[in-house]
Every structure is written in C-alpha cells, then in structure tokens.
Known about the structure:
Layout: E1 5-6, H1 8-30, E2 37-42, E3 49-52, E4 58-60, H2 62-68, E5 75-80, H3 83-95, E6 106-110, H4 113-121, E7 131-137, H5 146-155, E8 158-164, H6 166-172, H7 183-193, H8 198-202, E9 203-207, E10 213-215, H9 218-231, E11 242-245, E12 251-258, H10 262-275
Parallel strand pairs: 1-3, 2-5, 2-7, 5-6, 7-8
Antiparallel strand pairs: 3-4, 8-12, 9-10, 11-12
Helix pairs in contact: 1-10
Amino acid sequence: xxxxxxxxxxxxxxxxxxxxxxxxxxxxxxxxxxxxxxxxxxxxxxxxxxxxxxxxxxxxxxxxxxxxxxxxxxxxxxxxxxxxxxxxxxxxxxxxxxxxxxxxxxxxxxxxxxxxxxxxxxxxxxxxxxxxxxxxxxxxxxxxxxxxxxxxxxxxxxxxxxxxxxxxxxxxxxxxxxxxxxxxxxxxxxxxxxxxxxxxxxxxxxxxxxxxxxxxxxxxxxxxxxxxxxxxxxxxxxxxxxxxxxxxxxxxxxxxxxxxxxxxxxxxxxxxxxxxxx
Length: 278
C-alpha cells in the first residue's frame, strides 16, 4: 500500500476539521440535561496517515487526529472501500499508541460508505437516543451519493464536512461541449447532485464565438450547491465554503460545513476565516 502525499491545503483541511471536532467534543461532553453521546464518522478514512509534500514528514490523517481529541468521542466509525487501508487503520487503532480513546469504541468498516452509512451507521445517531454525530465526507472526487447528504440533513442530529470536488467535475463532466460528455460521467454527477438540475447551473444560456455553451464559474456552482444543502437537504446553517487549492492556486474543491446549530456555524465560520487567505 502506497502512502499518499498531501499538499499544503490538505494539511489545512486536517487542521480545520481537528479544530472544529475538538470544540464539538468539548461542547457535547458538557451537555448534561439531557446527556448526549457524540459519534465521529469518517466515510473515506484512508489508512490513517499521509506524507507531507512540503517537508516529507508523516502527517496523521483525519481518523487518527480524531482519536487524539480530548475529551474523546463516545464512538468512532471509520469507513473505507480499500481493504488495504482498513487493515492498516485497524492495526493502528488496536495498538492504542495515541489518544485517550477506548479501542472498543472504534469501529473500522471495509465497506461502501454510500450503503453502510444509510443502512447501519446513521441509524445509530437517532435524536430519541440522545445521540449526535459529526460526519466527514471527504472523497477524492464525486464518489458520493446525494442520498447520504440528504439523509444526514433530514435526521437533524448529524453535522457534516463535505468535499465538493470541482476538479473532478471540470475534468470529467463540465466540458465546453456538453454533448461530448460520457453518459457514465453524467450519471455520476446526477448521483452526487441528487438530480440533473446542475445542468442549469453549470452552463450559461449564451453561446461563445465557437457556438458552444459557456461554462459557469466554480464559485457559482458551489453557491448553487450551498443553496441545495439548505433548501433540499434541509440543513439550517451552511456557511460560505472555503476553497482548497493546489500549489499553483487553482481550486481543487470547496470544503463545506452544514449543521442545524447556529453556534456550530459560528465556530466553523471563524475557523474558515482564519485559514481562508493562506
């Protein structure tokens, strides 16, 4: 199994998630009437560590960083479709070399998150059971079904961080000549967006000098998805997302946060603003 290399903005993303997860755990742990149990969910967990492109150092991935948080979460669910990743992650979890967590509270799933989240994990985070969840949805591309996002919003117990990969969209779907896009790629986009309404956002009605439709901007596309998170998925608060960039400054994806709590949105907005101009 090759260890993935990550750049500056991926490290910033890990810092953002860790900072919020730490604040989230403190707040939920103090809740007493009623006492709440908070669950950390990582849908694309990976092997648990990366190599920094900047200096070659080992960087803890999002699951291992979550295990470092104090006070610890009541339960952790780490999911990855790659068996090699889950085997390595499971070894690290059971070795208990870091963090205050109880290994019995950590579950590593070699599974498709689009199925296991809906069938097994989200049902563990029910309002009537006094459970709450923080879910990281961070695929490398648009390998996520809208139904997962939609159900998280409707449950009202789950907050999400979401990778909105404009890089994947621009490379494989949002071509200047939309008639030449592969049907399988269109189907991927439909599953991610939830329907084909993205087509009305992705292209303007005017044609350019070559008679082709003009693509919209990444920012407009992200803003349309932000509205969808609020109006369709039903999240009450969706702060302006933070763009994540490559070494040349090009936007690879937007990191979204969505919640039903105003205090959560305020905390994340402050964290986003802290890193927005890095």
